[in-house]
Specification:
The protein has 300 residues and is an alpha/beta fold. 16% of the residues lie in helices and 26% in strands.
């Protein structure tokens, strides 16, 4: 796996479904450009020091799945402090060496999300919190949805200008992005966040395939759609909301258009197997739960 950093300018039976190694899963050898399938796996909304049972359940899943781990924001509750991150470290910290994180709003409860950047070091990218890397044949973009803390997310913002430049510099056949707050969500706590539309628009213009978010503490999968929420089988982006890392559960509200799968009572992780020209998805539930979701898609 090749990383590229950019400065600011620019049911127990379910375990049988896992990809197992020995005692601990390791990062698969998928150098940039390799045609071998690569695995990206993870969730958001993870560790609460008052109750680590959910984060522990999902950490156990990650330990049995080889691949790169995406931690999709709100990693350490309630305030993203050094003390809160110590609780994260007890669980998902066991796979820290292969984690590529994105910050969430709770990370920025601490000024500048400094404990988050201190904890992850170079793996968190520059202080803006957005960066990209290559995984197999795929280009992966990690963004920061805390717009007010980084100078905005509007079309002319530094982050969106960086995103468009990064996508132009990496015209991969398949592109995936992840960050914390979703543009589309049927979750009752937050729902749609229109501030994310310029990020979506830049990715849509570059023919990206997949976006993964968290923020609402549930699982949801959408059919491919455009930044305005219109169904678009030809060029649309498939969005996953995976706020299932362990914090707690929240109910769904009225389903948004194009929502295809939902669950609000199961912790788990989303496993994405990234192939040349295609991808498979699989929601893997915590031990003892039966909800699953899986399928496949092709790159544009």
């Amino acid at each position: 796996m090749e990383l590229k950093w950019f400065a600011g300018v620019c049911a127990a039976g379910a375990l049988g479904l896992l990809t197992l190694s020995s005692d601990r899963a390791k990062v698969a050898a998928n150098p940039a450009g390799s045609d071998e399938p690569a695995v990206l796996v993870g969730a958001g909304d993870i560790a609460d020091c008052t109750d680590l049972s959910g984060a522990e359940a999902t950490a156990k899943l990650l330990e049995q799945i080889a691949g790169t781990v995406m931690a999709v924001g709100d990693l350490a509750y309630p305030d993203g402090s050094k003390e809160n991150l110590a609780c994260y470290d007890k669980t998902w910290g066991r796979v820290k060496a292969r984690t590529r994180p994105a910050p969430g709003n709770h990370e920025f409860h601490a000024a500048g999300a400094r404990p988050y950047f201190d904890y992850f070091g170079a793996a968190a990218g520059p202080k803006g919190g957005y960066y990209s890397y290559e995984l197999g044949t795929w280009h992966i973009v990690v963004l920061n949805s805390e717009c007010k803390d980084i100078g905005g997310c509007d079309a002319g913002s530094r982050e969106v200008r960086w995103l468009r430049a990064d996508l132009a510099a990496h015209p991969a056949a398949c592109t995936l992005a992840y960050w914390h707050k979703p543009l589309f969500s049927s979750g009752s706590a937050h729902g749609n966040d229109p501030e994310m539309r310029p990020l979506w628009q830049a990715l849509y213009d570059a023919n990206a395939e997949v976006i993964v978010n968290g923020h609402d503490h549930n699982y949801e999968r959408f059919a491919p759609q455009n930044p305005d929420g219109g169904s678009d089988a030809a060029r649309g982006i498939r969005e996953f909301v995976v706020g299932t890392g362990g914090k707690n559960h929240r109910p769904m509200a009225l389903s948004k258009p194009n929502s295809e799968s939902q669950n609000a009572d199961t912790f788990g992780v989303l496993k994405l197997t990234l192939q040349a020209g295609a991808y498979d998805w699989q929601f893997i539930p915590e031990a003892g739960k039966s909800f699953m979701d899986s399928g496949t898609g092709k790159c544009h």
